[in-house]
Amino acid sequence: MDGVPDRPVRVFDALPRALRPLSDPPTGPGWNHAQMADLLGDVPRRPAAVLIGLREGVQPRLVFTVRTAHLQAHAGQVAFPGGRKDPEDADAVDTALRESEEEIGLSRAQVKPLGFLDCFETISGYSVTPVVGCIAEQAVLYPTPAEVAEVFEVPFAFFLEPSNLKRYVMDYRGHRRAMVEFVHGGHRIWGATAAMLLNLLERMGHA
Question: Could you tell me which residue ranges the Nudix hydrolase domain spans (predicted)?
Answer without folding.
Answer: 44-185
